[in-house]
Write a structure and sequence with these properties.
With 424 residues, the chain is an alpha+beta fold. It has twelve helices and 24 strands. A hairpin with a 2-residue loop joins strand 23 and strand 24.
Length: 424
């Protein structure tokens, strides 16, 4: 009893945040509060190209680019760059992976999947089992201990505002309509807020490997679940650890940005990945990461050229055009999934002239659905002339330019880039 009392005294003497540090994982807010910059914190890689890859399958140009009339009477297209003009609710939780409750596909090892076989205790919650809210409170300071609310509490003064766990979890799109996913079957009087249901997605191993900048914050409170003894008390109330939490090891890596923003199909590319916890040492064991490329065809593992805690440089071999995902994996712990896009390379193989008709052959020109918005220009004796497009497909463009002559430079401005060649 004396140990328990002393433990409480030590814990209450240290007052960390809430709310939790917001530098790791998804910010605790609602999609409606997001501004463009918040979206681009994750979507830093190839956003225009990612959307352009969807045009032939899902959208037309004018779905995003409205036709506008210029003061001189000419027409052009508007460009929407603010994500929330179209994405007024989260588009993520309507994907098949989300519907299947395979949350780790996007969130990595920060969460578990309900059907992945991770360990969930079957015994009744004990004195040190975290509560869905809290198990102790300081009536003087209103500081809570022993549950999720010790760190995950709202803060309306933050920008954007930080919301509570119930608010963020109740705003998961159509997933929120199925109450049983989180609350189980309560028709027989079961607990509406059962910690064991939380553990469907938040198991011991995932929780005990969440820490922002582990190398620098180990021993500091409030940066995750394993940094300081208070982090133990915040969840467990009556328990203080004096070493790393049980099952701690390869702290979950996190990706902030991938550069370059997009890659060319068929071209080997050197990529720089910045983020957190790409390497770490726990209890004398060194953990390091590899890069994994994901698409519908499967996965490809790539060994980094160089790596440290916050940066990876990796050479990615030539890929076919398409949308991909990239994650960092360290001893089974997966980072968040970051979208990358591989775009067709615009290449002119030949440009020939017959009477006034210029025929351009190559690849990556896109197809005829774009030819009202893209163009071909001919540099004729220092003057740039726009041409009348007769036909446009991915490998051949035919244009009518009465002033064109052999030796002129022709330029194709296609959806994913441009290329120039001399008319032969």
């Amino acid at each position: 009893m004396l140990i328990v009392v002393l433990t409480i005294g030590v814990a209450l003497a240290i007052v960390p945040p809430p709310p939790a540090n917001q530098d790791l994982g998804i910010y605790d807010t609602l999609c409606a509060e997001f501004a463009e910059d918040d979206c681009r914190a994750c979507h830093s890689s190839g956003v225009p190209d990612t959307h352009h890859m969807l045009v032939q399958t899902s959208y037309g140009c004018t779905d995003c680019h409205q036709v506008m009339t210029n003061p001189d009477g000419s027409t052009g297209v508007g460009i929407i760059r603010n994500c929330v003009e179209c994405h007024v609710t989260s588009p993520h939780h309507e994907t098949q992976e989300a519907v299947d409750r395979h949350c780790s596909y996007c969130h990595g090892s920060f969460v578990d999947d309900y059907d992945d076989g991770h360990s969930i205790p079957t015994y009744a919650p004990s004195l040190i089992t975290p509560d869905t809210s809290y198990t102790a409170i300081d009536n003087t300071t209103d500081k809570k201990w022993g549950g999720c609310e010790a760190c995950h509490e709202p803060d309306s003064t933050s920008v954007p505002p930080i919301y509570s766990n119930p608010e963020t979890h109740h705003n998961l799109g159509t997933l929120s309509l199925d109450c049983g996913i989180c609350h189980g079957d309560t028709s027989d009087g079961g607990n509406l807020l059962d910690i064991r249901k939380c553990e469907d997605c938040h198991g011991t191993i995932s929780l005990h490997n969440i820490q922002y900048d582990y190398t620098s914050t180990k021993g500091e409170l409030g940066y995750g679940h394993v940094g300081d003894s208070w982090d133990c008390a915040g969840c467990h109330a009556w328990y203080v650890a004096y070493s790393d939490a049980p099952q701690t090891g390869p702290i979950i890596p996190s990706i902030d940005e991938v550069s370059p923003a997009s890659m060319l199909a068929g071209v080997e590319t050197v990529v720089t990945i910045t983020g957190d916890n790409f390497e770490n040492t726990v209890n004398g064991i060194n953990y390091t990461s590899e890069v994994v490329i994901v698409n519908d065809a499967g996965t490809m593992n790539v060994t980094p050229d160089s790596i440290n805690t916050s940066e990876i440089v990796v050479t990615i071999s030539a890929l076919d055009a398409g949308n991909y995902g990239l994650r960092v994996v360290k001893s089974g712990m997966e980072s968040n999934l970051v979208p990358i896009v591989v775009v067709p390379q615009v290449t002119i193989d030949s440009a020939t002239l017959r009477r006034s008709i210029v025929t351009i052959r190559g690849s990556g020109f896109s197809d005829g659905s774009y030819n009202g918005w893209l163009d071909v220009t001919v540099n004729c004796e220092g003057s740039v002339l726009e041409s009348s497009i007769v036909n446009w497909d991915d490998t051949r463009i035919v244009v009518d330019c009465s002033s064109a002559a052999a030796g002129d430079e022709v330029t194709v401005n296609a959806l994913h880039g441009s290329d120039s060649a001399t008319i032969g």
